[in-house]
Amino acid sequence: MDLIQHFQFLRPFWLLALPILWGLSFWLARRRANEGGWAQLIDPDLLSSLRLDGGDNHHWTPWPLLSLVWTLAVLALAGPSWQQAPSIAYRGNSTWMLVLDLSPSMLSADLTPDRVTRARYALDDLLNAAKDARVGLLAFGEEPYTVTPMTDDVATIRTLLPPLNPEIMPSAGDNLAPALEHAGMLIKQGGGRNTQIVVLTDGFADPSAAFAAAKKLRAQNFTVNVVGIGTRNGAPVSQAGGGFVQNAQGKLHLARLDVDQLQQLAATGGGRYVDLAQLPSLIADLQTHASRTTQASENKNIQVAHKLDGGIWLLPLLLLATAFLARRGWL
Description:
Elements: H1 2-6, E1 8-9, H2 17-33, H3 44-50, H4 63-78, E2 80-81, E3 83-88, E4 94-101, H5 115-130, E5 134-140, E6 144-151, H6 154-159, H7 176-189, E7 193-201, H8 207-219, E8 223-228, E9 235-236, E10 254-255, H9 259-268, E11 270-275, H10 279-295, E12 303-308, H11 315-324
Parallel strand pairs: 4-5, 4-7, 7-8, 8-11
Antiparallel strand pairs: 1-2, 3-12, 5-6, 9-10
Helix pairs in contact: 2-4, 4-11, 5-10, 7-8, 8-9
């Protein structure tokens, strides 16, 4: 009785195909019984000699089996369900927007093996910690580019990390303000709330505009955190075709990490500045914020029953019945 009470079809409209398929089987059987109309044109004794399957197997017909195969297929597609599994009705509504700097200076090797590789490692750590948070990723150089919009598919984002390199950018540049504005747009499009923006950069060329963009995001209840990639001593900047970038005096241009500038950006955005060594503490803060947001929800303990699709259990029977249809001379 419990089984009958919980039994239902998840996609019942597929059942409407059954009368059509049964009618088609009946019509095919009638047509085959009349030898496709040849019995009206050829003498019965001659017709039996012309049949390829011989007369001894005439009493075996595939049409009931064909009807069974079609019936099993339709029932499987209709999704018979008699079991339930509990599932959480609420997911944390925290969102993390990750902003990666892909300017030429990110190829500097003051960090091993280089800055951009270490930044990708940091992104991987952030993705591992995301859990219930929805995550988005964009990269910027002269202009911002969306890698992924807001999503809870962290595994897909992780597969997109290895190709991220300054060399894939169509033009060189280091403008953070457009990237922050673009991040805000993606957050709004994804319906993000309680959003934490994490900028991974070694510096930017538009401080005034970047500070204004960070202040605007903070006014919208978005927090801008900054992860500094690089060292204060810096390293030469590689250039296309080999060699290093030189200044007007012919000396090597060193890309140094301007910690004061990055700290000011974080302060303007209401967030924290950390270097790579301090990244675990920032991750802990992000997780604490997400956990606190979840606990504040009134629906945190609500669960719903999820119907399990039992159509898969009909597939072995379907395959077995289909195999019998391969008998030579039936179809």
